[in-house]
Amino acid sequence: MKFSILPKSAYLRIILTYVLFTAATITGVLVFVYFSTVEVIENEVSEVVEAEIRSLEDEYRSGGLTRLRAALARRVETADGDAIYLLAAPNNQRIVGNLSQWPPDINTNGDWTILSLYRTDTQSEVLVGARAYTLGLGAKILVGRDMRARRDFQETLTDAMAVASILVLILALLGGVIFSRLVLRRIKSIDQTARFIMEGDISKRISVTEKNDEFDQLATTLNQMLTKVEDLIEELRVATESMAHDLRSPLTRLRGHLEQSQVSLKDNENIEKAILETDRILKDLNALLNISRLETGLSETQKKEINLNDFLANIAELYMPLAEENDMSLSLQSPEQDLKIIANAQLLAQAISNLIENAIKYAGRGAAIILSANLAENSIIISVADNGPGIAKENREKAIERFVRLSPERKDKGMGLGLYLVSVITKIHNFKFMLEDNNPGLIANIIIPNTEN
Amino acid sequence: MRILIVEDDVEISGFILKSLQQHGHVADVISDGIDGLSAAVSGTYDAIILDRMLPRLDGISVIKALRSEGIKTPVIFLSALGDLDYRLEGLKAGADDYLAKPFAFSELLARLEAVLRRGSNIDKTPDKLIVGGLELDIKARQAKRNERVIDLKPREYKILEYLMKNEGRIVTRSMLLEQVWDYHFDPHTNVIDVHISRLRAKIDQGHDKPLLHTVRGSGYRIGIAS
Question: How many CA atoms lie within 13 A of B130 on its CB side?
Answer without folding.
Answer: 7
